[in-house]
Amino acid sequence: MTDCIAHTAPEPVFAEPWHAQVFAVTVALNEAGRFDWPEWATRFSATLKRHGLKKELDGGEDYFRAWLETLETLLVDGGETNAGDIDAVSAAWEKAYLTTPHGSPVELSAD
Questions:
Q1: Three-state SS string across the chain, please?
Q2: Which of 38, 50, 58, 79 is the most buried (most CB within 10 A)?
Q3: 68: buried, middle or exposed (CB in 10 Å: 19+, 13-18, 0-12)?
Q4: Which residues contact 22 (CB under 8 A, 6 or more apart)?
Q5: How far apart are CA 101 and CA 105, in angstroms?
Q6: Is the whole model's pTM more than 0.85, yes or no?
Q7: 81, 90, 77, 87: which is closest to 46 by C-alpha?
Q8: What's the CA gap between 107 and 57, in Å, rounded?
């Protein structure tokens, strides 16, 4: 008699690719010595608390938006970038996303 075991694919850890990407960038910056985890944890906890006061966080999109906000603030405060550069790159990504045909990869232009 052969036992039949059903195999199901594991649930994805990240709901969206950008969630995984912002997580990976954060880990890479930490490993490069741009900040330490205790500082990250303190800042991220404060961001989550601030956002959680407005509504109950669902652990998905809002969690990673808080993650990104914390990372951006940490990089600006640490002198790694400035808010204007973050805004410019965000605007460029939005423009690229909105003008890219469905199904094509979104790419930033060199200009």
A1: CCCCCCCCCCCCCCCCHHHHHHHHHHHHHHHCCCCCHHHHHHHHHHHHHHHHHHCCCCCCHHHHHHHHHHHHHHHHHCCCCCHHHHHHHHHHHHHHHHHCCCCCCCCCCCC
A2: 50
A3: buried
A4: 64, 67, 68, 71
A5: 8
A6: no
A7: 77
A8: 31
Task: For 1-25, give one letter per residue: b (16+ CB within 10 A) or e.
Answer: eeeeeeeeeeeeeeeeeebeebbee
Token pair 């880990």: residue: 27
The token duo for 21 is 């990407």
Alpha-carbon dihedral angle through residues 6, 7, 11, 16, given to the nearest 10 degrees: -130
Q: How far apart are CA 10 and CA 27, in angstroms?
A: 23
Residue scoring higher pLDDT (83 or 11): 83
